[in-house]
Each structure stands twice: as C-alpha cells, then as structure tokens.
Target: DUF2236 domain-containing protein
Amino acid sequence: MPETEQQYFVPKGSIVREIWGKADNIMFIFAASAAEFALNKAVDWLYFTGKLPADPLGRLFSTVSYARMIIYSDYDGAIAAINRINAIHAGVEQARGAQIPDWAYRDVLFMLIDYSVRAFELLDRELTDDEKEEVFDVFYSVGLQMGLKDMPFNYRQWTDVRVQHLQQHLLKSNFAIDLFKQYKKHLGPIRYQLLKQVQLLMLPPDAKKLLPITKVSYLSPIISFYKLSRLLKLDGVLKEAILPAEYKDQIKALDTD
Model:
C-alpha cells in the first residue's frame, strides 16, 4: 500500500482521532456505554464469562485499548485487532454453545458512534454533518470487517435505526440492576454518583428513562468550568478524581498528543 493516509484504518487528521485522543472524551463515552451495556437485552452474554461484573473498570480499559488499536494503528494492525475481537467472541460462543445475536454487535457499534458524537459535542463543540458522517464511516468499516449484516449505509439512516434499536433492545433487567451495583462497589459511592451524572448528560431519552437513578443532572453547570480547566491544564486533576488511583497511569495514557 503506498505511503498515504490510506495506510491507516482511520486516516491522520480524522475527527475520530481527535475525539478518541482525549481521555475525558473516552471516559464520557464509556460512562454512557456502561449504562447502555447494562440495559441491553444481550447483557447476559457479558455475565457468561463473569469478567465484566468481577472487574468492570478493568474491562473498560481493555475495551478502550482495542478501540484505540483500531483507530491509531496502521491498516494491518487495525484489521488484526478486529480479528482478535472476533476470535474472542467466537471462543465465548463456543463455550456457551450459542451465538451472540447480530443485533447485539450492531448495538455496540451504534453506541460508539452515538457517544463519540455526544461526548465531543458536550465537551468541545458541535460537529458538522460531514464530521458526523466520518464518525459513522469509521465504525461502519469496523462492522463490515467483523462480518456484520444489515448495517445502515450512512449517518442519516443510522439515526433512524439507532432509535429503533434503543426501543427494541433495552430492558431494566436483574442483570442491569446487579451491574449498577458492581459499578458502585468498584467505584465507591462518590465516583459512582459522578458516573450517574455523566450518564444523565450523555444517554438518549429511551435509555435514560430506564436508568436506576434520578433523572436530573447537577453536572450541566460544571461542564463550562471543566472546559475552562482544559485551557488551564487543570483537567488532569479532575480526571484522576473520577477514577480510582490505581488507574492513574491508564488515564494519562489515554491522552494522545
């Protein structure tokens, strides 16, 4: 492949690299994803191995590492990372003797599209239509490489399908209730409250109404202060306040110069 931007799965200069190059964007993306994972009707698959409820924060950083490998690696490296994800899922399916529903895979890609956009617009600026299309294109390409079918073809079509998925695939189950208890156990009461407040800011209405939490966020007025802290280079202190101290190095590693 020639020495051009096309040697990367996600070209240099892409808005996706900008979004996923900031630790706070990633943390907001996965705070929201943590809620939607819990509410998804396929959450029993996350409980099958026991790894998610046993170590939700460790699983978060594991998932982040795969996402960033895809976004920042060269093309071959990104494809290798996607293939490893497929292999892991295939192993779980073989162990359980069943297949993960195709719609569950699409749900994961859909939430990454949605929350990438929402996090950046909440913490940075509004995205243009072309930038939103670019975000969609990256995760659409991941879906194709994973062999997923019935994917929407563009961002506009995705917005309609996303609403349908939220209405059809979310449920406040016993698994969801237990997973939120695990989040609280591993984060502690104060950080857990912060998690819930971020989720209230980030989740779409169909997901938010199922959350086992209050429906009003007091975090909105703080966002402006947080944006200012970025300019003053004080945001690192706030990031470390959100997650336990043992994840300090991982948090710093999320920021890409």
Q: What stands out?
A: The chain has one domain: 5-250.
